Amino acid sequence: PETIKHFLPSQIPAEYRVQNMIVDIEVKLCVGQAFDALSSLHSQHMHTRAMALIKSAKCKTVSIAAKYTVSHQTLISLMGLDSIDPQLKELRDWDVHMLSDPEISEDKQDSHTQNLGEGSQALSWIWMSAAGNGDNETHEALWVEWMKLHARKEHWWEEVLLLCEEMCQVLAFCEHHEAWWIDLSHSQTGLSLPQLEGNKVYALHQASLQQSHQKHFQSLWNNVL
Asked: What domain of life does the native source organism fall in (predicted)?
C-alpha cells in the first residue's frame, strides 16, 4: 500500500472523475492556496523596496506566482473557468510586479500597452484583489501611487497649457514678421530703382511666406485654440 500512488481528483481525466467530498476538499484547498499566494505577493512586494533585496525577493516571487498558477489551473480543471471565484484571475508575467516597478519590460506587457508612457500602464489586478484589502501597507502603497498619478496628471495639464501658449506665440510671431516685411518693402531709401524693386519683391515674398505659415498653423490648431 505504501507504494501505491494516490491521485488527486484534478489528476484524473474529467470523464472518469466522480464528484464527491474529495473533489470539494481539493477545490477548497486550491482556493485557499490561491488567495494565500496573492496575499504573499502583496507582502513580498511591500517588503522589498531596498534594491539590495530585490534580486532575492524576485526569486521568491516567481515561486509564489508558480504556486498560484498551479492552484488556478487545478481549479479550472475541477470546476471550469466560469465557476471559479472571479477574483482568481489568470496571473500573467506582467501582473507580478510592484506598483512602480522600474524593470517592467515591454515584452511583459500586453500588446495594447506596449510603447506607452508610464501614465498609460494599467494597475495590475493583484493590487485590487481581496487578498490585500486588509493590508495597511498595500493601502498606503496604493495611496502613494495615486498621488504620483495625480501629480503626473497635473503636470500633463500644465504642459498642455504651455503648448497652447506656444501655439499662440507662433501665430503672433508669423503675424508680426509679415507686418515687418511689408513695412520693410516700403521703407528703403537711397537705392537705385532696380534695387528698390528687387528688395520690395523679396520683402513681399517673405511677408507672403509668413502669412502662409500662419494660415497653415491656424488650420492645424483651429480645434485646439
From this structure: Eukaryota
Pick the closest to residue 135 from 39, 60, 54 (CA basis): 39
For 125, 128, 145, the CA distances from 150, given in Å and listed in that order, are 20, 18, 9
For residue 223, the model assigns a pLDDT of 85
Task: Extract the C-alpha cell encoding 19.
Answer: 464528484
- The average pLDDT across 185-214 equals 89
Q: How far apart are CA 186 and CA 218, in angstroms?
A: 28
Give me the residue spans of the domains in the chain. Answer: 1-100+125-136, 154-221
Cell of 201: 519683391
Output the pTM of the full model.
Answer: 0.42
pLDDT for position 158 = 92
C-alpha–C-alpha distance, residues 95 and 108, integer Å: 9
Of the two residues 6 and 166, the one the predictor is more confident about is 166
**Mean pLDDT within 86-109:** 62
For residue 134, CA distances in Å to 75, 129, 130, 164 come to 25, 10, 8, 45
* Residue 213: strand, helix, or coil: helix
